[in-house]
Design a protein that fits this description.
The chain is α/β, with parallel strands linked by helices. The chain has a single domain (24-330), classed as TIM Barrel. It contains twelve helices and twelve strands. Strands 1, 2, 3, 4, 5, 6, 7, 8, 9 and 12 form a ten-stranded parallel beta sheet that branches. A two-stranded antiparallel sheet has the order 10-11. β8 (276-279), α11 (288-296) and β9 (301-304) form a beta-alpha-beta unit. It is globular.
């Protein structure tokens, strides 16, 4: 491994200290799924208040910088080349177009800009160089920068760190016992290997999962236990509800019951107290009261903008109105001090 750059080292130094308390067993986590829901929410709210300002919500915006044609066969994903879906393929965007979108996101109140490419893995070359330029440009705007590009090697993670990347997203998706029912083109171990490369480069880890894919409750417990067992724990944990898209193998799955999402958010907050818990895909299926309960249970980030990669997201005006109604404030860290 090459010597860490000052930027990467400073990010590592600034990261939360590893959670050294005794971690719960898988059986302990499974028991949380049987606890009374409101009791669980009260406990999670207490934990949340100990580690975060409960009035603040980080607003992130996500842009698909390369859409469709992915060789993976993830059963939930409309960007897979294995399925006939409404998603149209799109080549990697130009840097200027991405930075224009990032500027618009910042002007609209976003604190973090995330870029996703429908790749199986990062490949060295001109396209990866273009992504690195995007990361540098986003940082100059004073935004947190996150990318999700599929699997990557240690030297590629280091190049992303050199460019100033804050977070790399690579979800575990579901518990390892259910993983083979959802994806066959890469393994659960492959995902953990990528997270190790990200952590080794000094970049913060963003990893979570998707609920409502036909998984048993044991697999949900396993997913959250696996996330909590990472050492150090992830700094960012997206909790997604399946958005069933026409043409995917999971297109006929019924919507996730609201209480199951609230429960997962609360358990994630209890198990991973220092992380930003991100209420992510599937928010269009939730009414305002359910979203408010998720915030009470410890969610402290949402994605804003009209689209999440290729699936719908609540209207920006409705998000702003909801935050005002709940007395929550968008986090505006770093906007007045854009990095050179």
């Amino acid at each position: 491994m090459t010597q860490a750059t000052p930027n990467a080292a400073s990010r590592a130094d600034a990261a939360p200290a590893p959670h050294t308390d005794t971690r719960p067993s898988l059986a302990d986590v499974r028991a949380l799924f049987d606890a009374p829901l409101l009791e669980l929410v009260r406990r999670a709210a207490s934990v949340h208040g100990q580690h975060h300002d409960p009035r603040e919500v980080q607003c992130s915006q996500l842009l698909s910088i390369k859409t469709g044609g992915c060789p993976e066969d993830c059963s939930y994903c409309p960007q897979s080349a294995h399925f006939e879906t409404p998603v149209e393929r799109q080549k990697l965007l130009d840097v200027d177009a991405v930075l224009e979108a990032a500027q618009s996101a910042r002007d609209g109140g976003a604190d973090r800009f995330c870029m996703g490419a429908a790749w199986r893995e990062v490949k060295d070359g001109a396209e990866f160089d273009r992504v690195l330029e995007m990361v540098r440009g986003v940082k100059k705007l004073g935004l947190e920068a996150c990318v999700t590009l599929g699997m990557l090697e240690s030297h590629q993670a280091e190049r992303l760190a050199d460019a100033g990347l804050d977070y790399y997203n690579h979800n575990l998706d579901t518990g390892s016992s259910h993983y083979g029912e959802i994806v066959s083109t890469r393994t659960h171990t492959d995902r953990l290997r990528t997270l190790d490369a990200v952590r080794g480069a000094g970049v913060h880890v963003c990893t979570g999962g998707i609920l409502g894919m036909g998984e048993p409750v044991e697999a949900r417990a396993e997913l959250l236990w696996q996330l909590a067992s990472l050492d150090p724990q992830p700094e960012s944990v997206p909790i997604n509800a399946l958005v069933a898209v026409e043409g995917t193998p999971l297109s006929e799955r019924p919507p996730l019951d609201w209480s199951e999402l609230v429960r997962a958010v609360a358990i994630a907050r209890i198990l991973i107290p220092r992380a930003v818990v991100r209420l992510s895909a599937g928010r269009t299926q939730l009414d305002e009261a359910t979203q408010g309960l998720c915030f009470l249970a410890g969610a402290n980030s949402i994605f804003v903008g009209e689209e999440l990669l290729t699936t719908p997201n609540p209207e920006p005006k409705s998000d702003a109105a909801l935050l005002r109604k709940l007395g929550l404030e968008p986090l505006r860290r770093g906007h007045d001090a854009a990095r050179p």
